[in-house]
Amino acid sequence: MVSLPVPIGLHLAGPKGQNPPLLAVQSETNHVINNLQVNNLTTKSSKGSTSTGANMTGVKLRKTIIEQSRRAGVGHIGSALSVADIVSCLYGKVINAKTPRDPERDRFVLSKGHAALALYAAFAERGWITEEQLNTYCGDGSQLGVHPEHCLPGVDFATGSLGQGLSFGTGAALAAKRQKSDRRVFVLLSDAECNEGSVWEAIMFAAQHKLNNLFAILDLNGQQAFGYTKDVLNLSPMDERWKAFGWDVHVVDGHDEEAMAAIIEKNSNVGDKPHVLIAKTTFGKGVSYMESQIKWHYSPLNEAEYELAMTELERQS
Amino acid sequence: MRGAFAKTLTELAAKDSRIYLLTGDLGYMALEPFAEKFPDRFINVGVAEQNMVGIATGLAEAGFIPVVYSIVTFASLRPYEFIRNGPILHQLPVRIAGVGGGVEYGHNGATHYGMEDIGVMRVQPGITVVAPADAGQTKTALEKTYDLPGPVYYRLGKDDRIVVPGLDGKFDLGKTQTIKKGKDVLLLAMGGISYETAKAAELLSKEGIEAEVVIVASVNPAPVEDLKQVLSQYRQAITVEAHYASGGLASLVSEVVAQAGINCKISRCAIEQSPDGETGGQGFLYNKFGLSAEAIATKAKSLLCGVPA
Fold this sequence. Notes:
By secondary structure, chain A is an alpha/beta fold.
């Protein structure tokens, strides 16, 4: 017996009556269920969003981030605001995914898992979750925690432990190459996450194997949980470091969606190197009193802060 | 066992194109048959075990069955959190093959011993844990588990020559294998040290003591029913493992005894102390840690006489 080269999506519907895996590769039955759920959710979405997310903007995601942070009373706001334009760019302009579990979808890994609220906001804009679901953020029994869990359709890999996402994504990119698929893999990392040695293991491997379908996007906001990156472990110049490790490096404004999307489309499956966008960002972007302030890594919003933030974001809409 | 593992994996890979073999730069003189036959499905990821497990996770999510290979401690402890957050959390079919359980890497010293791998793997409900006793059992165990939907950890011995008498390559998930019936004392063994345990039973036989010898190779799922059944027949049982006394076979068996309320006293032949830097061959270290056939037999005799060993 010679099996076909990796029949995606079907092969793991366990032999000998075993259960199929929870993530990834769903059985036919699960696919149907997921599609039904997604369609159902799409029609129920009160945001009236399209399934392509074409109208997504960073500002829209920021409003959701502020609203949900306030409602749930939790922090990690500054980190989510920092990546809002990157996530909007990816889910509004770049990522090909007919459904959240489409085996041929582009993969995305939010390696800096603590910015998951930006991801949920994008899922809502894309119609993958309802506003009702969004309102469960950080509630009991919710699938929407501070860090993304893979049980939520659309989350390709659960993250939260820094330094793991690029390895997952590198494996996903290698898999796409071996399956002769054009699908791409995007991994969003924080600059402080590059303190983790395992990130550099993945960087070396991806370059060695010429994974030109892999895009790392580095949220270079210069801050970490307990200080500024230059004072903790100075990794500047970040672009030179990635270049020295064999990557195709693009330094870009991490709040310019068009510029980032253009670099990605131009370089997908092109060249003989993996690609990194060193995305220069402002921590807490869009809310004046949060910008570049360490406090907003963890701090939740009070009512006055919430009102001020929403007023500022309305002006940017 | 590692030779049998590599050979069996190569045979399976010929039938199943999902199988990939990743190594953390180890397996010289062991993995060549696979590497030569399937060069496109063999990847030396370099000395980077965390990344190796992460990559395997990404490959498995797309439908492959990646096997990651290293020495026990580098396969289990170094990337442990990657194993937890990757294949276990996502329930993906990554296979982790650790070679050289216990003190098999004798002269190489304490950094190369695998004394807690079973303990740390066994606490995770979401991973199958298999510790074969010899090459024949390794082959069967791999054939029966390679395509499970979730992750599997294999603790493999280096030695392909030892044959545990009476085992005949038998393996079933969630079951034990009885290689010798007895009546006086029960010996429960896990992994490569099963051979020493069988020898201990022979030594005891010569002195008129009939030990029953049971192999526990399916650690997770634990062979709870089989253990309950056999433990209920004995007042004295000895667990034998080249592993720390906590977390491994002794703990597993003690849990079964306590939970089922079985009236059987458990004594442990296991590594009871941290390595002190004194190195030597496996035989020397088995003696040092009280794991040789002679030490196991002595412990059994002292138990039966009611004298602490």
